[in-house]
Amino acid sequence: MTTDAPQADYVLIVEPNLTGHRWRYVEWTMQACADAGYPCLFVTECANEDHRLPRQIAAANRPDQQIAFVDPDEPSSRRLAGNDQYTRFHRYFKRAHTIISRTQSIRLVVVPYADYFLYALPFLGSPFGATPWIGITMRSTFHHHEVGIKAPDRPFVNALKAQLFKRAIRTAGLRTLLTIDPTLPEWAARHASKRSAAVGYVADPFPDEHAENPVLARQRLGLAPDARYLLVYGAITERKGIYELVDALTRLEHAPTLIVAGEQDAGTRHFMRHHVRSLKPAPLVLDAFISTDLERDLFSACDAVWLGYKGHYGMSGVLVQAYRFGKPVIATEDGLIGWFSRRCELGPILGDLSCASIGNAITETMTSWPHAPDTVPAAREELLSRHTLGQFKQTLLQQMA
């Protein structure tokens, strides 16, 4: 831990993986604890010691914001063999709680990503013993076919996971299971037993920002004032549909300028390096962590946001940010992204990722969106206006109180 803190009843936050948006959920949970005056202690793996969030916590050196590093009890080579992933993660969370509770009093555990071990709970029980805990699920998709969300049709798997889910939320110690899927609490209300923990909705937040003057934003970014820009934002991997998008743009007459902003994985970096010259006009590629100020300028400057993701059935903070900045999205029809985009009329929906579909969607976006304010559906304000960081913290604190 970063300091010799006095004994206190801590909120324990456990997240072994700080890639993608997961570190943000830890940061926001810690901020919520600070807002409410709850001392908290964050546990992650030693490999994350150089990540920006642990460095930030260590530099602040606050007695009420602690960090500890706990590794799994077996080498990674052994973790990869034998036992399913749910069991392995259950064992890690149990180990983290056991080690920390030897020296610190833990009043509550918060798991920002409970999907690690959710389906192991019916067999192994809570990894936190008698300590109450709150979890957030982001990838529970077994119910999507029942509520009209497009997802893979896997009747046997979905039925099995539905049964496991109903048993999981009856786990002793689980106070509340929160979800970023607004349809899951409704499903749980119809199917869960009275002895189950509450299943509540927490709107997937994005940092509270408001649009800048697009002319000034473009000046700061060195962008042409009269060109068209399509933004791909976040952790840039093949699942973003970036390969298909680049291919479509190379074949599209009068294509917009592509902006790719966010840390790329090795495969995407290799792909972009070999295909960037085929894009006309030349793209703006920012392969790095994006600061808040730069993020604000990017969303202010662009004309539309790409959400043609592959195999992603959960929510997207990028969609929320596009809504907040008044930018249309080009979205896959799958999962919650498609459900929100269609329900809230956020932009063209892609039936597939063919060049023709993408090209047509880009052309439509650049000529017909965003719609005039008087045609905006009420569902947009009803659903997406709740996706603020303040609302996220308030929902979490209501469950922690």
UniProtKB/TrEMBL annotation:
Keywords: Transferase. One of its GO terms (molecular function) is transferase activity. This is Glycosyl transferase group 1.
